[in-house]
Amino acid sequence: MTEDSTLAFGTVISEAHKTLAVGRLSDAAGHLAEARKLASHCIEHAQILDTFGAILAQKRDFKEALEHHLQAAQICRDAIDEWDGMVQALALPPEKETPSKFPVSEARYLANVGALAQISDKPALAERSLIRAYHLLESNPETATDPLLAEVAHNLGVFLMNVGKTTESVPFLESSLKLDQQELDRQNSPRMRQTVHAGMLRLCAALRREQKPESHGRAMEIAYDSLELSDDINVIARALSLLELGSLHFAAGDLPLAMEKTREAIDKLEALPGHLNNATIAMQLGKAYVDLSIYARHLGRGAAALQSLNRAAEQANVAQSPALTAMSARERAQLT
Length: 336
Description:
Number of helices: 15
Distance between the termini: 74 Å
Radius of gyration: 24 Å
Shape: elongated
Strand content: under 5%
């Protein structure tokens, strides 16, 4: 392929991404058709397939989207320059140790598979794809790919925690947080502070669920670090740290301190302007009131627990959250 044709391919694929970003799917598909005529290298074929997969995902055709992302990964793995244009049927990617000719590129497309497989209810595909993507990136370290590795580690850790594999999730959440903290050292921006804060709280939740003394102590330390960091973010971040500390003190059996931290979080959220009709704040307030009810119930304060549940129900109506309503109903059943 000549230098001119390489430049031409880059221009066309860039236009495809631009039009896709603003939702002009037909225009994006047209650019990809033009790019296909120029493509000759496996990396270029993979870019076309992955971008077309994104178009299919926007059309909610998740199965075909996944097939295109997986085909892009396979083309990079096997370095297929003479691609026949066929897309393979949906299947799990190989085990993580299988060699790859272009490991970073393959990992990038498998990361897309992992994210899409989660929302299309294909847990086995999500787990295998994310584990292989993580292994490929970790085995082929490049500073430029650290953000991708952090993203894959985060997605894998959250996925494993959500499917009940808490202990397995912890190393990936730790890896994601470490990479994000390194990036925060390089650029102390509001976005990175929020990213690191969220990562701290996710790791705290996983360590708390492990229910091990050593994990609990570490979670407590991280939660207090997140509280300190929240001073440079906003009131909601501080409230979230306080709520996590409340949960940790409850797990440690210190109910009065758990209630103190939770009440402090509630006070801060309710002091925010416009909190009465803000769904995001209402969601956090509702969860806080449910927590407060649980702590009061364990202290034998039934009236206080019921009062907190009533406040939680009010917040569920503001947030219009079935999840919060169900959470309140479960605690009400425990109380009665």
